[in-house]
Amino acid sequence: MAKHKVVIGILILVFILGILLFLSWVSLSERKFVAYDTGSYRPDGLKALNLLMLKSGYRVSTIDKIPDHHQKLLILISTGLSSRQQRKILDWVNAGGTIVELNSAEPGLEVDKYHLSRLNSKAGRACQAYQPTGWPATLRYHLSGGWVTVKTDPEQGFYGVGHRYFIYRQSYGAGQLVIWNDLGGLTNRFLKYYPDNAAIFVSLIREFSSLSGIDFYNLAFQDDNISTAGWKPARAFNHYWGGGLLLGLGIILLVWKLAARFGRPRPLNLVRGRSYDEFVYSMAGLFQQAK
Hints:
Elements: H1 2-34, H2 47-55, E1 59-63, E2 73-78, H3 83-94, E3 98-103, E4 116-121, E5 126-127, E6 141-142, E7 146-151, E8 156-161, E9 164-172, E10 175-180, H4 188-193, H5 195-208, E11 213-219, H6 232-236, H7 239-258, H8 276-290
Parallel strand pairs: 1-11, 2-3, 2-11, 3-10
Antiparallel strand pairs: 4-7, 5-6, 8-9, 9-10
């Protein structure tokens, strides 16, 4: 019986561990869909950047494919591009488009990889600018921290550490690329604590584009081999359900531990009493003593 209890206990622990791992996976999957999303109010979302562009007088929209015109500035949000995506976007730029790539890793549109390097920085580190005409000289850009990609000899560098720039511009065909290698510095959390980052971004947009419209093209959680539609169950999953499930499971285990168990009837250990013969002999002895 004791062995069965041990086996049941182990199975319950494995079940609980499986639920915790599943909830962790769902939480990570859910975060992938809200991180760097222009409609997300979470700390790692970009809703503040979206509203900033609207209040700056731009007509802002979100697209899911490369446009067939060059009437708007394209802001690309990415955490990495495939070769097919890179080629398609660069063809659009080559035809006369202007694009600002916001990335959290290595720039996907950078064609010159030889002058790139990685820099490890502390969160909130202030960086001085190489000031273009018309930019406020007092603005300091604050890095989001961690590893950031920098370039030593860009065509035109804006913000960097020393002579290594993480915000820079380069021409490509009839168009131009603006590379912004610190996407984390434009999230809701950083724009709240470091408004200079927002002012620098608006100044950059006005410096290189006279267009009144902006298209956000978000590839931060898209992949060539995985369709985002397949993640819809994870996106719809509410992590509070997991907490309620664990709470219910804990109550069931508590009741199972404290409640009475209905097993097979057990024989009672009755105390053996005296027989009728012993009782009669005892009474006879008492009467005899009374005479």
